[in-house]
Amino acid sequence: MPQQPIEKVKVNEVEVDFVGLKLLINNEWLAVEARQLKLLHLFVKNHGKALSRNQIMNALWSDTIVSDNSVSQAVTQLRKSLHDDKDTPRFIKTVPRVGYQLIAELTFPEQVAKTVQSSRNKRLTYLVIGGGSALLGIGLTMGIIELAKPSLQIPHYSYESRLTSTPGPESYLRYSPQGRYLAFSQSDSRRSQMDLAVYDAQSQSVHVFKSTGYSEEAAEWSPDGNWLIYYRHDPISCEIRVMSVSNPVETWRLSPDFHLAYCEVGFSRQKMHWYNDNTLYVQQWQNNQPILTQFTLSLEGYPSVIKQEQVDNIAPILMDLDKTSQQLLFVEKKPQGYVLQHLNLQTSIRRAIEQREQEYWGLKWNESEQSFWLGNENLRLVSLNGESEVVHLPIGFIPDIDLNPINQQLAHAEGLINVNLYTLQVKSLAMQQSVDIQQLSSSARTDILPTLSSNGRQTAFVSYQRRSMDGLKHVEIWLKNKDKKAANLLVNLPESILPRFLLWSANSENLLLGDSQHNLYLINIYSRHMVPIISDYKNVEKVNWSSDGKQINFTTRSAKLVQNWRYDMQLSTTELISEAVVDIETEQQLLSVDEIRKINPSYKYYREIINVFLTHQLAELLPVENLAPSFMLYRPYIFDLGIYYVVKQGNVLTLYLYHFESQENIKIANIGNHEQDTHLMLNISASSDGKQLAFSKVEGFETDILLQKKEQNL
């Protein structure tokens, strides 16, 4: 055992970084909760000794009274992180009537260094014997060093210029095939729609060439650069248009445009990819799901669609196509997170590159079948074998990237965003009215998931101290009392916890936090202490407090087996109540009002259930034809008297109420604008009487376009 503090250790084949709070498993660094590593650190310090439950409780919860169940859950979580099996343990052994023992083999950094040095000495001896020459030894050593270098070759880029400085976001960057023009969309002067603009590198000027009263987005060039296609949409229509750009750029605003295809209203748009003269790949929406569609075009007169077909089993929410090799990069949303994948469209061979819980922004091929650019919290070059290098750190975030095909100039959007919380008080649940809207949280942070107590006096919310859109740092739970001016910090969360929902107990003394990994945590607002209560269960959902606040009911699912459980807060025990085989196809069936009242955001199909219910109840009275796009943006809320939901029409956000008793759909108020999708979880919450509300809103979305120049290799 080393005498100095333990910062790193190898436990069997797993490398542990206690300072960085991470484990290296199967060549991938995984973030781990601090308490798990504190427990592992305790085991390492007492390697080979059986630790009692009291010893573990005293070390991990020295200032808090917890039960034996907390120790069991902590050990279970650590075993899960180490991929250990309690029945055939390789890391942690259960010692009956005593506690737990670390049985894994430990290797410390100084031992690794000695082993490496010994190996190097042996290799050097062999080289001297075999070659008999110091020069040969040096040459072989240099060769080994060269072979050990990463295969990812990082190009050198330097800042060249900023192209735009207009209010609002700029997005959908797209270079022309000849590299002269850079098309993009930007907010109009009223920030009510998006206009099409183009940067001309020859004259170094920007031209706005489409400003029609519609939103025009995601322009794409034909392979010969003579045609431009784009989305044109408003609250009630969406289509793909095509226009000629073979004339001088100053005359493009006068060019006639033509209908190419229709698209689904209200959904987010992705860049189109005109692969060759007769083939166009487009992300479309079908049954509220993204699909990849291949259009076959005719170029007689002007481009027109003569055939379209779906590319099987591809549901891209972000994609980029390398047109020289027909290699597709795309991101799909899965239950376990977002998966970045590579597909050869010619052979249909696909493979996953990486998976993560945060959404991807900005995706662009760099070298075919070798490397690509990623945006989000930084500008990163990534190889297909998983190597990665940060090339540029923005002030905020990077939502879009494109690469000039001629000189490799890199264009990227870069900017900042505010996400604020607001409270709203309504006087009546019966009519559109003037409402009192007040800001609840600070613009210095990203605050989401406001959740009101049943009496409307307390609002809990999740706060991120973020350098960028998804560089998650210092995740916290805050509490704002209606009678107090300032909000108070409840708990700090490990960065590995990504909150999905908050649920108040009936007495407003406790909160349940559900995360993306189906774990449940109990937070007491008086002690300001968080305790994990449910972990290592698959697909936890349908979480509900008992009426007395002493028990928590929840459901788990394994294949088609559904199990109902009850957690007793006083005993800290979990009991299986019932189980049954359920037909999954009935999950999203139409529910009655009484059944609707019981569901909350912990239900797997929460948004879909409400969509089905409202569509059936309101039929022709809905403010839009399809609620799904708005529900993807804003999570609705069910309270005792009805359902609050937000509809996005154009850029305008409108709050509606469906009243259970009167069966009326009531427009309550406009609550602001939403210019561009940010992939953040936005929601609305209400008190049990519906008079007090809290909601999150994206504001101050500002991006500019920056150019990075590729330096010539010396």
UniProtKB/TrEMBL annotation:
<comment type="similarity">
    <text>Belongs to the TolB family.</text>
</comment>
<feature type="DNA-binding region" description="OmpR/PhoB-type">
    <location>
        <begin position="6"/>
        <end position="104"/>
    </location>
</feature>
<feature type="transmembrane region" description="Helical">
    <location>
        <begin position="124"/>
        <end position="145"/>
    </location>
</feature>
<keyword id="KW-0812">Transmembrane</keyword>
<dbReference type="InterPro" id="IPR011659">
    <property type="entry name" value="WD40"/>
</dbReference>
<dbReference type="InterPro" id="IPR011042">
    <property type="entry name" value="6-blade_b-propeller_TolB-like"/>
</dbReference>
<keyword id="KW-1133">Transmembrane helix</keyword>
<keyword id="KW-0472">Membrane</keyword>
<keyword id="KW-0238">DNA-binding</keyword>
<dbReference type="InterPro" id="IPR016032">
    <property type="entry name" value="Sig_transdc_resp-reg_C-effctor"/>
</dbReference>
<feature type="domain" description="OmpR/PhoB-type">
    <location>
        <begin position="6"/>
        <end position="104"/>
    </location>
</feature>
<protein>
    <recommendedName>
        <fullName>OmpR/PhoB-type domain-containing protein</fullName>
    </recommendedName>
</protein>
<dbReference type="InterPro" id="IPR001867">
    <property type="entry name" value="OmpR/PhoB-type_DNA-bd"/>
</dbReference>
<dbReference type="InterPro" id="IPR036388">
    <property type="entry name" value="WH-like_DNA-bd_sf"/>
</dbReference>
<dbReference type="Pfam" id="PF00486">
    <property type="entry name" value="Trans_reg_C"/>
</dbReference>
<dbReference type="Pfam" id="PF07676">
    <property type="entry name" value="PD40"/>
</dbReference>
